[in-house]
Every structure is written in structure tokens, then in C-alpha cells.
Amino acid sequence: MSPILQECIDTICLERDNGWDATFDVVTRLVKEYGEQRLADRLVDEIPKTVPFEVVADLLSILIWSTSDNGHLIMAAAESWLRAPKETRRMLIALNLECIPFSSETEAQEVLGGIPDEHSTARPHCSRVLEYWAKHP
Q1: What is the DSSP string of the chain?
Q2: In terms of pTM, does the model score above 0.85?
Q3: Partner of 19 at 20 to 30 A CA spacing, among 65, 110, 118, 130?
């Protein structure tokens, strides 16, 4: 893992219960170093699986507010991880972002309603997103 990415992870771990004072500064440096193209995929590929998915979701959530497209590419990547579920970890990250995936309840139902058995760990997280959409049509 690169030094700037390690610093982001470390800072998020220190601040995740107390606000994001230093995290935004470190994340801004990360965006400058990494660029924005395919950022979500590249980061998830690089971050070791020993880092909890919640921390990775926090990083991507902060990046949504720190990129020039207001996180459009990050959300598109997250939604693609849910549409073609290959890796439970990516699904869990996508389902735990600050922004809710998909643009409608119908779309969320279509994608999240039939999670394959090999990704059953993600089902409670899918249910939470579907409950959100049911309350906020």
C-alpha cells in the first residue's frame, strides 16, 4: 500500500468516531496523487483485505465529497459491484457508503432483491438499503 493510502487509512481509523478533521486534508492529497479515473476500483484492489470493509467504505464516502465529479465515478463503480456481484467485500463496501446506491426503489429492488447464496453475508446490508428506499421513494 502506498504511503499516502496508508496515511488515509490510519487517519480514518483514528478519527472515525470523532469527526474528520485531518482526514479530508489527507484524502485531498490522495486524490492529487492517484487521480480520479477508476479510483474506487484501484483503491479497493490496493487496500489489503485485513482493513475492515467499513473503513474502506468511510474512505470512499469521504472521496465522494472530495472528487471533482461529486463522487459520480465512485458511485458508478459501487453500483457496478452490486449489479455484477463477484466479490462480497466490494458489495459490503458499496452497501455501506454514505450515499445510497441506485436512483430508485425499483432499481434497488431489481439489483438487490436476488443476491446469490455465495454473497449471503451482504443480505442484511441489502435489506437496510431496500428499507431506506421503501421509506424514501
Answers
A1: --HHHHHHHHHHHHHTTT--TTHHHHHHHHHHHH-STTHHHHHHHHS-TTS-HHHHHHHHHHHHTTSTTTTHHHHHHHHHHHHS---HHHHHHHHTSSSPSSSSHHHHHHHHTT--GGGGGGHHHHHHHHHHHHH--
A2: yes
A3: 130
